[in-house]
Amino acid sequence: MKIIISGGGTGGHIYPAIAIAQTLQSIDSSTEILFVGAAGKMEMEKVPKAGFEIVGLPIRGLQRNLSIENLKFPFRLAASLWQAKQLIAAFKPHVCVGVGGYASGALMQMAVLQGVPTLIQEQNSYAGLTNKWLSKFVDTICVAYPDMATYFPASKLVYTGNPVRKDLLQIAHLKAHACAFFGLQANKKTVLVVGGSLGARSINEAMLTSVAALLALDFQVVWQTGSTDFARISQTLQANHLLTNPNLVVKDFIYEMQFAYSLADVVVSRAGALALSELALAGKPSILVPFPYAAEDHQTKNALSYVNKQGALLIKDSEVKNLLLQNLTNLLTNHSLQQTLATHIQTFAKPQAAEQIAQEVMKLVK
């Protein structure tokens, strides 16, 4: 079986794609998988790290502001379509899978034109432009939220949830290992702060004004700053004599998220699709701070689907600096609210999502 998986641009596209690929190979170890991404984007690093081959297309998105880069778009699109056609002809896939992003659009369009069976996976509660456009032509559409017929043809929809890392199913047994890994204590309330793979400036700024008070209350903090802000935040914490506090762990990126979730009593997070799916599977009480400039404000829509079911709390990005400390302190000291949020967020968990999508892929193999 030969499968092409295309898309990327963000971790929210890349990690579900990797999970699908790993599941397909666990079902049949002889399955050959080729990833196709956008040259220069993060998938070109993350996918090989997971052990898969990837080819980069020269595609780029249109800039929202006036930019000379937009003049290059037609030429990059034409080159990407041509390269996608050549890749499909050479690899001869049985199925092409799109997970969103610009590279997905080019590859999947050529797959349709060449008669290859196609499946797309939409991670968000608000469909992305690429997937909305492709939905008219592809065979199957796997979605992470119910009621997606607003955006897609109902006859093609399969409600699967988002694929996430399987080690999150075992976090209840990892707390002792997590404490040893981070050098923290099991008997203290712990908050995990994450802003996506690249970090979140507003959350980082809010934490800079809140972290001293949280540490003074003897709470533990595990803080993923993202690579962009890490050096600046470390210097600020060092200047304020907080970096050596035994209750504080600051990292630019946490690869061992199973340990971070295991230790966390409360999580502060953006509301990307992958982050929400992981929080649901881990069953963690969460404060969500949606990124307001995501396409079509889809992170706010994602978050509200949880908040409206009492599965999470929400703070607007513009208000997080003023409200984060109060909300965090209230939640960390309110066991009843933690229980309510944890119970309701778990109703969104789809632990078999990758297996379901893999089965849908295999149904399309001619």
Poorly predicted ranges (pLDDT <50, ≥5 residues)? Answer: none
The SSE string, one letter per element, is EHEHEHEHEHEEHEHEHEHEHEHEHHH
For the biggest β-sheet, the strand order reads: 3-2-1-4-5-6-7
If helices are DSSP runs of H or I spanning 4 or more residues, what is the number of helices? 14
Explain this structure.
The protein is of the alpha/beta class. The protein folds into two domains: 2-162 and 352-363, Rossmann fold (3-Layer(aba) Sandwich); 166-348, Rossmann fold (3-Layer(aba) Sandwich). 43% of the residues lie in helices and 15% in strands. A seven-stranded parallel sheet has the order 3-2-1-4-5-6-7, sandwiched between helices. The protein has a six-stranded parallel sheet with strand order 10-9-8-11-12-13, sandwiched between helices. β12 (286-288), α11 (298-307) and β13 form a beta-alpha-beta unit. α1 packs across α14, α6 (175-182) packs across α9 and α7 (201-216) crosses α12 (320-332). It is globular, with a radius of gyration of 21 Å.
